[in-house]
Amino acid sequence: RRIKSEACEHIFEEGKYHLRDKPLKEHKSKSSRPKPLGSVPAVAPPQTSTVQVQPKEEKQNDREPPRAAEFSQVPGPSPKTPPVACSANELMHELKRAYALILQEKEELILQLKDELADLKTLARILEDENQRLKENIAKVESIDHWLR
After folding, report:
1. For 3, phi and psi rounded to 5 degrees?
2. What's the whole-model pTM score?
3. Are 78 and 48 within 8 A, CB to CB?
4. More confident residue, 101 or 50
């Protein structure tokens, strides 16, 4: 909600919102999210990281040097992603695919084990029923002792 209402500083880069690393109370309502076409200035943003100074209206005295907290690194959108970031993104996507594949295999294994468990329960029930039937038959059969006498 804060990003949508622009109540906090953030950078919108490659479809992701990145918040500033400082308490939300210190955030200004400035963002790098693309504006609708009617409000976009004709000048393109810088293509590299730049150091920006906060507007002078925030300072109490124009003669004071800017404080370190007023400077911030703002990564600008680059036409080409650096090779390190590109390879990091590729590795991340590869890890995600591998993780998804492992999860799918584990789910299939769980389903297979559940089927085998159901089969084993059925087999155990059948064997218990057969054992009970044989016990009842043994009890019904007369002892052969009277035949021997």
Report:
1. -65, -45
2. 0.36
3. yes
4. 101
pLDDT at 24: 66
Instruction: Read off the amino acid at residue 148.
Output: L
- Alpha carbon distance 112, 51 (integer Å): 58
The residue behind tokens 């507007």 is: 55
Spans of all domains in the chain: 1-33, 83-140
Between CA 146 and CA 149 the distance in angstroms is: 5
CB 123 within 8 A of CB 116: no
Give residue 110's identity as a one-letter amino acid code. Answer: I
Q: Give 20-35 pLDDT, tens digit per residue.
A: 777 766 666 554 545 5
pLDDT tens digits for range 38-72? 444 445 555 554 444 444 444 444 555 545 444 44
Q: What is 51-83 written as a DSSP string?
A: EEEPPGGG-S-TTSPPPGGGEEEEPPP-SS--H
Q: Measured on CA atoms in the order 58, 61, 65, 67, is the torsion positive or negative?
A: negative
Joined together, the tokens standing for residue 55 give 């507007």
Cα angle 126, 127, 132 (rounded to 5 degrees) comes to 100
3-state secondary structure of 147: helix
